[in-house]
Predict the 3D structure of the following.
Amino acid sequence: MKKVHIIGLGIIAVAIGIIISMASDYSSYETFSSAKLKTGKDFQIVGTLDKTHELEYDAEKDPNYFSFVLKDKNSEACKVVFHGAKPQDFERSESIVLTGRMNGDFFDASHILMKCPSKYKNDKLDINNYQEVDATPKS
């Protein structure tokens, strides 16, 4: 084999090794119960806001403390603490994706991504409520 072939195979092997090591860092959506088992690692958890619990945010007392309760896809509820301002229209979000890690009995979120309701959802036309108008000229 020529030196060029050996160097080329070495570069390919290193590239494959880098790709495999990076692929292990990709996270999938987890639940609170699986995140509790693997502490010290960041997870993404998708869920909905539990509206039976109050949101805790006081901009005058501490503008960088926001807590709420989220239900994951298995309907397991957990307290979430976010060290930042409360996002606008947070209560109206359909689903929430959190990035962060478990910290004892609560989830310490570093990022919040909200899926807001579609602005077109209530704009569907109800044809039954429209009256028919005859536009033909009368003689």
User: Anything to note?
Assistant: The CA atoms of residues 8 and 104 lie 49 Å apart. Confidence is low (pLDDT under 50) at residues 129-136. Residues 28-119 form a domain with the OB fold (Dihydrolipoamide Acetyltransferase, E2P) fold (CATH 2.40.50.140). The two ends are 98 Å apart (CA to CA).
